[in-house]
Amino acid sequence: MAEPLLKVAGLQAFYGESHILHGVDFEIREGEVVTLLGRNGVGKTTTLKSVMGVVTQRTGSVRFAGGETIELASNRIARLGIAYCPEERGIFSSLNVEENLMLPPAVKAGGMTVEEIYGLFPNLLERRRSQGTKLSGGEQQMLAIGRILRTGATLLLLDEPTEGLAPVIVQKIGEVLQTLKSRGFTILLVEQNFRFAATFADRHYVMEDGRVIDHLTAGEVEKNIGKLNEYLGV
Questions:
Q1: What DSSP designation does 54 have?
Q2: In sequence order, what are the residues at sequence separation of 6 or more whose Cβ sits closer than 8 angstroms to the Cβ of residue 43?
């Protein structure tokens, strides 16, 4: 079997003296959608930030496309083809939609064109001259995802993309993630709504207290609903 596109082993992470991750282990194969599930505060976002190199106090191993990245700065990790979409979205309020889309540099060949992004998110085409401050929460999330698709990244790290959004927008985000998967993108998704994630994710890792404590394939979700509810505090 081919080596995983991303393999995380023994990942430890710290914020100052606070020890957040305690030996996280998981892997993702090319073209998969994999979720990190768990209650708030268990280390899911810190895991994404550590993979991206945003958390600099980290030890262990993070291998991407066969190469070790644990010692690399975040800008060098981005150039390998990894992109991070934070929960807070990071939209520049003084720029309009199209200016926000054009802001990140293309780090690798093969990124989507602005026209392709508008095809995924027709709302953004309609609002392309609107400032970031005038977008709804759903439109901001579409813009945040669209922005990283221009970069040429092949591994997308998405942090709570459906948080606080109306059901119709959640459905749209799900359709887009299905489309991205069909186009060969690999996605690591932090998501509280495991029923949403289960509609398209291949596998799920459950985190607790800074560690991965369980692993379920898509086919195992339904028969483990009770255990998942207990893990997630539903």
A1: -
A2: 13, 20, 21, 24, 207, 209, 210, 211
Other Cβ atoms within 10 Å of 227 Cβ, number: 13
| 195: its two tokens | 């029923």
Q: Which CATH superfamily hosts domain 6-232?
A: P-loop containing nucleotide triphosphate hydrolases (3.40.50.300)
Domain segments of the chain as ranges: 6-232
Query: Do residues 81 and 108 touch, judged by C-beta distance below 8 A?
Result: yes
Rounded Cα distance between 123 and 12, Å, is 40
Nearest to 128 by CA among 97, 95, 94: 97
pTM above 0.85, yes or no: yes
The candidate with the shortest Cα–Cα distance to 48, out of 234, 213, 207, is 207
Cα dist from 3 to 6, 27, 29, 187, whole Å: 8, 10, 8, 16
* 52-76 per-position pLDDT tens digit: 999 989 999 999 999 999 999 999 9
